[in-house]
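Reminder to self: tokens first, then the designed residues, so the page reads top to bottom the way the pipeline ran.
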């Protein structure tokens, strides 16, 4: 079965503002106020909680790995509580997933977000049932760009790796697809914008309306 696997943050949904808000809650708890800006620091949000904490503390000239490790659980708690305040699916994303399903594609998710948080977000967005698989950062002992989580996502969805592709937004997704030997489709409306073309993926996606036809071209007919 032809299979399309999606990254979550920065690909299906813009989660940056809620992620940054969680990090800023930690900084306020430390008495520093908000150190990250939703407009300027969105790209860092998609590199994970520790990256956000590190960036904020670097602006104080006080990066401390022990402090980052200590604050990371608090960041996850803040984020879990307010996971869907600002987050929205990118325009056309859900329609594209539904169209793929209607055309006989299997669809799933492979994310470096902790699985429980990913499951919570998808459920709160009301779209969990659209995806036949969901592999998170801690589902397996390894995470992207190791190909194992991607292979697990395809298999769990009932597909075949040889007839699958990965839709993502970062170099991690590009490397994951390359390691799995499958095409990568990188979105140009994610945190890096059109600059993502520097990674030379098999295809770029400017709008979700084009994804079903693009997937059919890359994976062939059913």
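Designed residues (222 positions):
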């Amino acid at each position: 079965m032809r299979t399309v696997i999606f990254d979550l943050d920065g690909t299906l949904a813009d989660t940056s503002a809620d992620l940054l808000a969680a990090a800023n809650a930690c900084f306020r708890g430390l008495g520093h106020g908000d150190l990250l800006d939703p407009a300027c620091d969105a790209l860092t949000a998609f590199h994970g909680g520790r990256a956000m904490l590190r960036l904020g503390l670097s602006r104080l000239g006080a990066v401390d790995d022990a402090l980052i490790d200590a604050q990371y659980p608090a960041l996850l708690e803040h984020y879990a509580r307010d996971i869907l305040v600002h987050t929205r699916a990118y325009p056309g994303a859900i329609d594209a997933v539904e169209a793929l399903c209607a055309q006989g594609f299997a669809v799933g998710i492979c994310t470096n977000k902790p699985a429980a948080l990913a499951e919570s977000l998808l459920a709160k967005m009301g779209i969990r049932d659209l995806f036949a698989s969901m592999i998170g950062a801690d589902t397996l002992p390894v995470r992207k760009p190791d190909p194992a989580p991607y292979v697990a996502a395809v298999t769990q969805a009932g597909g075949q790796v040889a007839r699958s592709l990965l839709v993502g937004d970062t170099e991690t997704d590009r490397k994951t697809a390359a390691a799995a030997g499958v095409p990568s489709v990188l979105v140009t409306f994610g945190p890096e914008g059109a600059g993502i073309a520097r990674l030379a993926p098999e295809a770029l996606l400017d709008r979700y309306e084009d994804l079903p036809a693009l997937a059919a071209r890359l994976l062939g007919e059913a």
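The beta strands are 3-6, 13-14, 88-89, 106-110, 133-135, 164-168, 184-187, 203-205.
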